[in-house]
């Protein structure tokens, strides 16, 4: 599989989260930038994005764990017109084996009672301009038996690449995933 090309991007951090907690930490832009290498500087996330009746609201940046191949990601809440939270979508920045083979650059989850309304598809479409500002193409993955995600990814127009075994040393393996379907999406 070819390596994906990352676009050049001017950046400035907003609010960050170290790890999976919901606590936010504001960091002075100059302090944060001075601690980053050119490859690790993150783009500025849009505060809101929308498509049809779905609005994405930026929540936080979660830093990765380079030792485990985990990259930073932007976490957005998926909101529907009445202001209800229907789920979340994450946009991962980086190109590790974990991203390419197991989790992809885009990950989403819709709350059970909101499923069947194409909110994941619309969230991906809302996120597309931000994704396009960083990458020409991204990887999206799903478990082979997750038919709802497969349909969402295929309806998005992503092209099926292959189906692979999850490496035993990948965090997804510890979570129970054994195979992944990989798609390439040009937003």
Automatic annotation (TrEMBL):
GO molecular function: acyltransferase activity, transferring groups other than amino-acyl groups
Signal peptide, first to last residue: none
Top-rank taxon, per record: Bacteria
Keywords, ordered alphabetically: Transferase
A Pfam family reported for this protein in Swiss-Prot or TrEMBL: Acetyltransf_3
Residue span, N-acetyltransferase domain: 45-158
Name by which UniProt lists this protein: Acetyltransferase-like protein
Organism: Chthoniobacter flavus Ellin428
């Amino acid at each position: 599989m070819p390596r994906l090309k990352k676009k050049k991007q001017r950046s400035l951090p907003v609010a960050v989260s170290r790890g999976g907690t919901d606590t936010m930490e504001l960091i002075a832009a100059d302090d944060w930038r001075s601690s980053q290498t050119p490859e690790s500087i993150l783009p500025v996330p849009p505060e809101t994005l929308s498509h049809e009746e779905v609005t994405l609201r930026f929540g936080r940046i979660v830093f990765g764990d380079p030792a485990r191949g985990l990259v930073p990601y932007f976490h957005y809440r998926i909101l529907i017109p009445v202001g209800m939270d229907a789920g979340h979508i994450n946009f991962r920045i980086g190109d590790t084996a974990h991203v390419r083979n197991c989790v992809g650059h885009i990950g989403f989850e819709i709350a059970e009672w909101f499923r069947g309304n194409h909110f994941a598809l619309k969230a991906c479409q809302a996120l597309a301009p931000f994704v396009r500002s960083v990458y020409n193409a991204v990887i999206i993955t799903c478990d082979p038996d997750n038919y709802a995600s497969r349909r969402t990814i295929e309806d998005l127009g992503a092209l099926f690449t292959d189906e692979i075994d999850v490496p035993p040393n990948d965090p997804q393996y510890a979570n129970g995933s054994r195979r992944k379907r990989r798609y390439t999406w040009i937003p």
